[in-house]
Amino acid sequence: MKINYLILILTTIFMVGCTNVEDESSTDGKTGSQDVTTVNTNENSEKEETSSTVVDETVVEEKPTQSNDELFSGYKRIEVDGGDLSGSREPNVVVDIGYGDREYWAFTNEYGQLVRVIAEEIILQDDRNEPVLSSGRYYSDEAKVPGVVSDVLDEGHVIADSLGGVSNAYNITPQDSALNRHGDQAYMEEVIRSAGGATHFEAIITYPNNQTQIPSSYKYTYTLMGNEIVDEFDNVNPEIVNASLGSTGSDPSNSTGSNTSGDISSVDTNGNGQVTIKEAKAAGFSMPITSDHWLYPYMDDRDNDGMVGE
User: Which of 98, 135, 208, 278 is the most buried (most CB within 10 A)?
Assistant: First the structure.
């Protein structure tokens, strides 16, 4: 009997011990399963965070498009062939008037008048790689904007062919012939060509009323070599204006000494042999005066950057 009791007690102890081991093993298994679940959750969280970052980066890349949308707000964007000779314009539209891949934007008001032209960068004509005619133009003719059929008005480009502009009505205004060919307009274009281009270009075009397509004045703002240039002039013959001011030019004088390019007597009003910015402007010259201009040697370029009056 004693032996039987002893065997029974040992058996009971053994069974209890096995049960505890199984419970501990079962508990360990649950804990392990919980750990795995936690790890998976963290991994999913990390993945979600990474996806969110990618989306944010995509939004940043789309900002330029949003910027253009803001720029064109209130205007309908249309496409017009660069050589379209039609002189009519749609109201409240924006048109790319840059030749090739250039982006030059022209804006009209509610009356169809061309009132603003902007370009982040002016890229000069490339006659080696672009189909430029022997005349130096992209197209053989310009748009017939009302008013250009005149003895004294040209089909004036806001941004010239040489600066990469097209010839449709969104880049053409009826402009005084003398102004366009050898006045302030021509001089501005030459300055930009000589500098190899320009940045932050803007033209503001003003009209005397809302019925005409002939501007009364122009204001050009652009940046050359880090300097902001502002050119403002009326749509008139500069020679007539100079004559009315008593500042018409004259033939070069042999008694000018070192002056071999022109006679400054009509510009140098105080006769001191030097020309101030005020005197140059009064004589009809637009700023800046660059180092290749005949007036430059008689002016004071204080920062020695090759430009006076910038």
Answer: 98
Q: Phi first, then psi: give them for residue 30, nearest 5 degrees.
A: -65, -40
User: Phi and psi of 256, rounded to 5°?
Assistant: -85, -5
Per-residue confidence at 215, pLDDT binned at 50, 70, 90? very high
Residue 289 backbone dihedrals phi, psi, to 5 degrees:
-95, 115
DSSP category for residue 130 = S
Model pTM score: 0.62
Q: Residue 38 domain-assigned?
A: no
Domain that holds residue 214: 66-241
115/108 Cα distance (integer angstroms):
6
pLDDT digits (tens, 9 = 90+) for 154-170: 999 999 999 999 999 99
Domain count, the chain: 1
**CA pair distance 24, 19, nearest whole angstrom:** 9
Q: What 3 state SS string does 210-262 have?
A: CCCCCCCEEEEEEEECCEEEEEEEECCCHHHHHHHCCCCCCCCCCCCCCCCCC
What the block records as the tokens of 308 is 């006076």
Q: What CATH number is associated with residue 206?
A: 3.40.570
How remote is the C-alpha of 175 from its chain's centroid?
Answer: 24
Cis peptide before 288 (omega within 30 of 0): yes
Cβ distance 168 to 82 under 8 Å? yes
Residue 183 lies inside a defined structural domain of this protein: yes
Mean predicted lDDT score pLDDT of the chain: 79
